[in-house]
Amino acid sequence: MNEGSIECISPAIPAIHLENVSLTLASEAGRVNILQDIHLHIDGGETVSLVGPSGSGKTSLLLLIAGLEQPTGGRIALSGREITRMSEDDLALLRREQVGIVFQSFHLIPTMSALENVAVPLELSGAPDAFARAEAALSAVGLAHRLSHYPSQLSGGEQQRVALARALAPRPKILLADEPTGNLDLDTGARIIDLMFERAHAIGATLLLITHDPSLAARCRRQLHMADGHIVRDSARVAA
Amino acid sequence: MTRSVLLPFRLAARELRAGTHGFRLFIACLVLGVAAIAGIGSISAAAINGIAANAKAILGGDMEVRLTHRAATPDELAAIQRLGQISHVIEMRAMAKPTSDGALPVLVELKGADDVYPLYGALTLTDRKPLAELLARQPDGTYGALAHRVLLQRAGLKVGDRVGVGNTEFLITAAIEREPDSTTQVFAFGPRLLISQEALDATGLVQPGSLVYHSYRIKMPPQADRAAAATALNAAFPNAGWRIRQLEDAGARTRNFLENTRAYLDLIGLSALLIGGLGIANAVRAHLEGKARTIAMLKCVGATSGQIASVNLITIGVMAAIAIIIALAIGGAAPFVFKASLAQMDVDLATGIYWQPLLQAAAFGALTAFAFSLPSLLRARRTKPAQLFRAAAVELGTVNRKDVIAVGAAGLALAVVVIAAAENKLLAGAFALAAIATLAAFRGLAALIQAAAHAGQRRLKPGRGARALRFALATLGRRSAPVASIVLSIGLGLTVMIVVALIQHSILNDFARSMPARAPSFYFIDIQPNQVAGLQSTVMATPGADDFQRVPMLRGRIVRMNDVPVERITPPKDHEWILRGDRGLTWSAAPPPNANVVAGDWWPADYKGDPLISLDSGTAEAFGLKIGDTIAVNLLGREVTGTIANLRAVDWSTFSINFVMVFSPGLMESAPQTSIATVRVPEDEEGALMNRVAAQYPNISAIRVKDALATALDLLTQVGGAIRGTALATLGAGILVLAGAVAAGREKRIYEAVLLKMLGGRRRDIALGYLWEFALLALVSAALAIVIGSFGAWLFLTLNLETELVLAPTVLAGVLAIALALALVLGFWGSWRALGAKAAPFLRNE
Asked: Which of residues 43 through 62 in chain A touch B, CB cutoff 8 A?
């Protein structure tokens, strides 16, 4: 498949499917219901924004989808594979193949160069051409000239572009982004978002994005509004 | 496949690009412990190899036939001579009396050498003239003699002075620097005086029953079968009662001594390594906590727990390898560094690289690094990647039951390797148990301090004076406070120091005070039957003389136990000496005055039957002998078999006359014999008594117990120096760990100090708080170290040496002072910056 082409997604199998999902966490004050009765169906290639006030459960929902948190109830499937009962290591393998994550704080590995940071997920999945693909991914985000730079030698915008290249280099089916512009100035943030939409579209990835920015949320074809652990509004349902 | 196997190595290599930064404490702790063990092992191996390399010179030949009391018969001599060139050496103890006025006689190890002595090696003398010339009869009728430099020192003599031995006077023609056939002088009762055999005859000291050793050293053709020659000699003369020593037996006593000393030094080295293990654990935890975000990130992009563990294990393994290589280089160089200083003690080191002790030290180091890194390694693989989304700080995962089992298994593996590698498994096992118990005790103390500090600061009434104490208690009570690290590092190092110091102090105290108080003043040996009455009246005429004891004595070798030849008996290590040489034997109709018969009955006073034996109960237990069993002894070429009639518990520490075996009278009474006697006299009469006995009975040797104790004390002091030096390594390890723990908390302290200052705290208040904090930790840790260390020393002294523990206030006060000084110096070193830190930069960064 060529860089920039759109992958065919079978509409019959949703990219993300959550059924009656709940999450309860223990705290010193007792058990706290974080998410309740979540039903969600996102098709392949969709762009979805997740908005809501702090503490509404956005990040928890993202963590469940990324397989970084286990739900207390319900089932979750990614590309038709149920992940609810998978072991931690199986979930890690699944993330290698299917999920890319972009964080607010970039989370680059400080001891590795930009190229090595991007190559890590490819190396983990055993790709023989990990460095060539990492170099291509960095070129695609305009950082071909920064391959050997360490995170501390890069600006915030450049670091986030490296993080984006890292998330997209393995061609994930799902791209999860947690306030990707939260630590960037407006101009840089806007450029990163353009790049993210462009690259996600190029590889046909489903994009699920947490943001507090209404204009950014509006760029997504579908918006999910959360409050008190529930999805209180889904633009797809409203449209329907 | 290869790609995925190599991936953890590639990722670890990227981690390691940062160099050893952050691992300096880890490396220092590991280097210290491993270098100590490697150094001790290398020096010990070099010393034992030195003995092996010089075996021919030390033995004096390729084989030695040694007889007690008598020379070889013409037939025996002819048989020995057929094996090769022989050198006949006669040794005995004697008194040498300097001819100068007022000088006291000195006990010497007299050696009568023949013309061909030494067959191997060379005498190192202060004069290069031929040996025959130096020992020859002088124009004035005296004989030439060579005195060991120790004798010259001890008796205040110099070359050219004269000494009287027996009926003859000797001119000291040169000093002996080194004797090829003597590994070290430290085991000898007296220093060497070397004379010719003609001169020895002239002394008149060799009389029937005298304790004289005749050694026939044989230089054999290179192709000769030594073992077959020894077998043939024994077969030809089954009742000769000689002891044939091969090259493998050369320096056996020194070798045993070195091995025993090494066993104890090894354990102290291991203590240093274990204390360093705490530093390793702290360093690895700090490193992995710093990497927690990266670990979480790697998990987010698909790394499995196994891959995370592999990367971290490889990183730490490389650091451990660097530390171990440095340590082995230091330890391996030890024989070269200490060669000259050990040569002063007559220990010849065969310098070289000894791989076995180095590999053993490396294995201990690798296992220690692994066992102490494991808890953090296991926590790292359980790091929750979800923290990247939520928490400001990413923490390592928690430990579960499987992890606890894994850490326990690693600790057990370390203990098993230590015990398996040790010569003395019981000692190593006891050490492992003691190490675990001590570690647990200090860990418990740390928890107790934290709980008490937490409760205490709440109850403390607010007030000006209590402010600093409250601050200290609040710091100590915090969950993240490094109380455990500080308590363990101070406590464990001090515990080892206390054990070593108290054992040494108690032994020295026993030697210097207790033993002389209960021991006789003199041993007189080689008393001829016709001199007994005269000697007794001479001795008892001394003002204050008391408790004169005399028993007849013969020396003989045990040749069989219950009809099993001793060659086929493997004795316990600490009872090998009973079979190794010949033993002093006595006989008595009545039980000796100090006898404590614990099993069986003493024979009737008029018993005239077959020989019966009263045996030391410790020996009986060691060899599994019981009443009714038999022991055969070769006495002057004749085999005598006795039946064990009773067992006696012997307290060897009294220094009074005691024998492993006491025979029933009868058979032995007719043998050529001498007596041994003891007496107690006031200290200021000892010199005069020595002079009188030497003048009246030149053949009788007087061993002054005080001198014998001084010789033993010299040896103990030398060994004690090595042990104290090694124990310092444990304290060094403790200092490293303490410094590491304090340094690790430095940034947090600075931040706290800044906040306190912002809220109105004065520098003095903060400093007083630190003073309370470190002083409390030091004093409580030192107190527990004193309790555990004293208990450990008591256990060791009671079980191993049957010596009483003497608590030395100076030692204990010293320990408290060291603990306080260390904690305060290192504590303030770590906190000083906090006191002077400006608030603005820290708050601005917030």
From this structure: 59, 62
